[in-house]
Amino acid sequence: MLNILNKTVVLYLLMNIPFAHADMLEKEEVRIFMTEMVSKHGFAFEQLNSLFEQAEISSTVLEAISRPAEDMPWYKYRRIFIRGDRIRLGVEFLEEHREILMAVEKTYGVPVEIIVAIIGVETRFGRNAGNYKVINSLATLAFNYPKRSKFFRSELEQFLLLTREQKLEPLAAKGSYAGAMGIPQFMPSSYRAYAVDYDKDGFIDIWNNPADAIGSVANYLKVHGWQPDESITCQVTAKSEKYKEILTTGLKPDMKILELLDYGITAKFNLKFDNKAKLLNYELENGNELWLGFDNFYVITRYNHSALYAMAVYQLSQEILKNRKSKSNFKQLMPNHRECVK
After folding, report:
1. I need a surface site. Which of 29, 37, 116, 250 has the fewest CB within 10 A?
2. Which of 56, 105, 122, 157 is labelled catalytic?
3. DSSP structural state of residue 168
4. Helix, strand and coil in the chain, % to nearest 5
């Protein structure tokens, strides 16, 4: 009986131990993927075989992706990012890279404060860019996370192409549990499509080069439709509960301001009736807040498809503006009308 119990325990442990690298090559999906990389992109099969032999499936990655911060209510999510230490670091980052930021705003039309806030939310201004091996994160999610395997399989493909193009060591690159990389946390497809060599040194480096990271964030937002000097969001109130009829899960502006007024929405500022906006509801500890998200707010959600994320970026940007030191240097580049259309 003891031997049977021991065998049962051993079998249970073997079934539940985190996947080791040897298991990677035993997966049919991995073999198919490697074959496709050879036929589509000319990779050497032996090279890929060696790479996946050393890659590991991470149970930590699977645990992390199962509990995203964006599932929190707003009042808890906000506490993560709108903090004194992060605001202080944001001011320091803005001051340190002032000239680059101002030049990037002129080039791409994206406000300095929004660029800084995105970097602040993503990596605390480069201080926390992730310690997961990117190959492990992407392989884990591509072949062991059915819910989004198609997306991560594509990102794994893009990562291998990126490392070849940029002459990076695939096993050395580190990032988030989801495979996002560098100071601005670009996924491999975004790195290849939107990252820029802003300082023209011949190498796109979003891990260690703030100029490239800042320029890449701005380029990403511009390509996704950022409109210079247009509003981002505006807090509003409601005269009744009728507004609940138009609360939906989408993020894209879908109603004209004039239509929103019919649902009892009011603002402290005169809004342009023909502008479109999305009515957004944010949960507080006691009650809620209503905001309008304009086209530029929607553009921020292209970086991370979450209304919580975009609002955290916006509010952090405003706190950094309020606390910046060299206010005169940013007078013309940071107009005070971005919160709402006057």
Report:
1. 250
2. 122
3. -
4. 55, 10, 35
